[in-house]
Amino acid sequence: MTDAVQRRGRKARLRRAAEPEPNPPVWPGVLGGRLKPLSASEVALVENAALTLLETLGLSQAIPSMTAKVTAAGGITTDDNRLLFPRALVQWAIDGAHRNFKLCGQHPDRDLKIGGARVHMSTGGAAPGVFDLDTHEYRESTLQDLYDAARIVDQMDNIHHFSRSVVARDIDDNALLDINTAFACLAGTSKHVSISITEPQNVAGIARLCYCIAGSEAAFRARPFLTVMVCHVVPPMRFAEEACEVLELAIKAGFPVQLISAGQAGATSPATIAGSLVQAVAETLAGLVFARLVDPEVKAIFAPKPLVADLRTGSMSGGGGEQAILMAGAAQMGRHWDLPTSSIAGITDAKRLDAQYGAEKSLAVTMAAHAGSNIVTQAAGMMSSLLGVSHAAYITDNDLLGNILRTLRGIEATPENIAAEVIAEVCRGEGHYLGEQHTFNRMKSDYFYPEIADRRSPREWQDDGGQRVGDVARNKARDILRTYFPDHLPDKIDRVLRQSFDIRLTRTQTGRRE
Predict the structure, then answer these.
(1) Which 3-state string (H, E, C) describes 354-416?
(2) DSSP-H helix ranges across 468-509
(3) Residue 315 has pLDDT above 90, yes or no
(4) pLDDT in tens, 99-132
(5) Which residues, including other chains, have CB under 8 Å from residue 87's CB and lie 6 or more apart?
(6) Mean pLDDT estimate for the chain
(7) Which of 121, 268, 372, 429 is the most buried (most CB within 10 A)?
(8) At what angle do helices 241-252 and 273-294 cross, to 10 degrees?
């Protein structure tokens, strides 16, 4: 097959992906928010406890620019160098937070409307390893694995956002790692991308790369297609100094930011679910105050992401009911303040695409989504308690997430949907609905049909080879990686980036001629 034919095939697939069903059963931004694990009095208690912690205990290790900004706005530095945040200042940050904005894709048809209880599914995790498609064994992850993850996700309708899922362990230098991480993600998908940046001095390079892709700094600031995720705290109640510097520089460069607190219950946050939630909320609100003092118009995402440990061993346990309810509670607090919110859900402890994987991921993602988290990270591909990613799992999770999104729509009981007239006509007529126009009209708009999950009879399944779902997913992942190379980055821009930066993915690896 010639290169020209391959490119035409790729563009045809992109066009097909950009042509959605006119009345789809699910879509990015289906409304959640109906699940409320906290009662109204419990929400008030969590809010009061978080604000009291910020006002009376505060956080240590604030960087000088933060101290200057917060104290100028009414904050206090204690004798033991803890920075206190008055309630009025925190309330100012909440009340004035940017709401109802877009997380832009590199093309407008990939934009995500963030606000209210709109739910979007995302990858994530920064795992150090992958489960190899061919050997089925765990190995260290590479830059190629990151790019491969992005281009698989680019083809998955129900994974709306790409958050850096694996670390390129084949790159040792932090500056090279950051720039190549950004490039691999942005070259692999035109969906909105989120990454972290390891050191403050690397922010400028990432910004220059994004400005180049956008066409100019002004163009990127108008439509930023990359979010910087910042774990601005080292729980309990301490700022991470370098991360706070990254946060400040990223905001000034025009990036949306995700403000993350990720304490571990029983280790770096209280063992109780309520205590862990309160601490995470307080730490995240402190980040929101600083972010808005840097730029009152910052697009900041409230992301309390407390984690759970198995207290028998101390190891992280992301698949239990405790993690699921904790994330639902965190999402509910975001909805309480109507803040753009992200939750971590789907970090199953399973090591394979098995019953444990499906059960744990479904439980956690469903609860976070129904609680109204705007961006549910780690919802796809992640396994082994954040240690590994499966490329095949993106395929199976696309089905799983589609079903979860369908549950968010609910029953939608309206006179039209109840269809009393249709019931009467059928009962007076043929006695079944199979031939009814009403059935035909609603079969696509009301029903989600999985691509990988097998709904055939046992006989049909056996006659076709009796493949397990993991095997089917691996075959599809291999097919995508063999044939699909996104070309939303124009060739001219790709060459300019390679002249300006030390890009370690070769043009051949990204499906281009050298």
Answers:
(1) CHHHHHHHHHHHHHHHHCCCCEEECCCCEECCCCEEEHHHHHHHHHHHHHHHHHHHCCCCCHH
(2) 469-483, 491-500
(3) no
(4) 999 999 999 999 999 999 999 999 998 999 999 9
(5) 51, 54, 55
(6) 95
(7) 121
(8) 50
Distance CA 260, CA 255 (A): 15
Contact of 122 with 161, CB cutoff 8 Å: yes
Q: State how far the Cα of 183 lies from the Cα of 485, in Å rounded to an integer.
A: 14
Select from 361, 381, 372, 311 the least CA-distant residue to 339.
372
Query: Are the C-beta atoms of 304 and 261 separated by less than 8 Å?
Result: yes
Nearest to 124 by CA among 156, 169, 159, 157: 159
Q: Coil, strand, or helix at residue 128?
A: coil
pLDDT number for residue 316: 82
Helix (H, G, I), strand (E, B) or coil at 56: helix
Measured in degrees and rounded to the nearest 5, phi and psi for residue 118 equal -70, 130
Strand order, beta sheet including 226-230: 162-163, 193-195, 226-230, 257-261, 300-304
The Cα–Cα gap between 170 and 233 comes to: 28
CB 149 within 8 A of CB 126: no
pLDDT digits (tens, 9 = 90+) for 366-404: 999 999 999 999 999 999 999 999 999 999 999 999 999
How far from the centroid of its chain's Cα atoms is residue 53's Cα? Answer: 28
Q: What residue type is assigned to position 106 of the chain?
A: Q
Q: 381: which residues sit within 8 A by CB, 6+ positions away?
A: 123, 125, 149, 153, 165, 389, 390, 391, 393, 394, 397
Cα–Cα distance, 141 to 147 (Å, whole number): 11
- The span from the CA of 52 to the CA of 386, in Å, is 32
Tell me the C-alpha distance between 333 and 163, whole Å.
23
What's the rounded Cα separation, in Å, for the pair 322 and 309? 9
Token pair of 165 as six digits? 């899922």
Structural tokens at position 215 = 């066409």
Say which residue the tokens 């160098």 belong to: 81
- Return the bridge partners of 261, or none: 304
Torsion of the alpha carbons at 194, 196, 202 and 207, rounded to the nearest 10? 20
Is 90 exceeded by the pLDDT of residue 281?
yes
pLDDT digits (tens, 9 = 90+) for 174-207: 999 999 999 999 999 999 999 999 999 999 999 9
Distance CA 499, CA 179 (A): 13
